[in-house]
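Weekly puzzle thread! Below is a chain. First person to post its structure in token form gets bragging rights.
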Amino acid sequence: MPGTLLVAGALGLVGRAALQRFEAAGWEVIGLSRRPPDFGTRARFLALDLMDAAACRATLPGLGVTHLVYAALQEKPALRAGWLDAEQIKTNRAMLAHTLAGLEGGPLRHVAVLQGTKAYGVHLGQMPIPGREDAPRHMHPNFYWAQEDLLRERAARGGWHWTVLRPQAVIGHARGSAMNLLAAIGAYAAISRELGLPLVYPGRGDRITEATDARLLASALLWAAGAEAARDQIFNVANGDVLTWRGLWPVVARVFGMEIGAPHPMPLTALMVDKEPVWQRIVARHGLRPGTLAELVGASWQFADFAFSREEQTASLVSTIKIRQAGFGDCVDSAAMLEWWLRHLQEARILPA
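Winning reply:
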């Protein structure tokens, strides 16, 4: 039976998709976000600083929350350095701890938390292929481990269950996300076209990898909220096929009506430093929703550089056998996914048609 879902980080890539999926399934949904929603929703939104333990204790107990999707995330300005940073680990653990403390003693039944392929050390070098959930915990410092240990401890004490999902390269919409490849790809293509340039693949190497559609991930979260097989388990989640980002470049070119140029490795973080005036020209010419390039893309130029240029790695692939055997078998064609999302953002006047 549907319950009351609390989504922490409700306007991020995962949180937004989860909020919309649970709402469509008839759940009462409460979103935690510092910004109001920029889309139609019946969900109730609250602004709450998750680093404020007293505010969490004052606000959360009376909400009647039965399920939590915890998609809140604090990243450092220097993205990759932050992934190993002790302060970042401490902050992300504290945010989850304050949220759980505010819900304990209520009707809480299930908590879902997100990890990713950094659990397999993908940011440190060639990860084992495929990444499997039963692999020994990687020895590098990571907030994943701090949050997971906290989940296990609090669940045992509180009598509720948890599920950890590990997607790879989530594709969906969120403004200003630190890890939004969709926004980076779309803005890069639009700016290239505005400058009269062909669509050049800026990456280095041709790593074989996977992606996870935010809509599929939201369906997995909905499944995990009620499936006994998902209780107290960790699952990889991906679309079900494999890709190279250069191999998807024709999809981007088709959506934007562009020719493809010769690949040229170049960091987007450097290329985009002076492109705000170009973006504002695009916004005015195409009647897009007002906003700066930074507000749309956030720190995702850094993430795109990380995704597109890893010559030291041949692949980053995870096994999804466990979640399929447990009962969740949804799949998505990654090329169709990328085209759908780009055209969706065009229709929403976030990217130019």
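Puzzle host: Confirmed. Bonus trivia for everyone else. The chain is about 40% helix and 10% strand.
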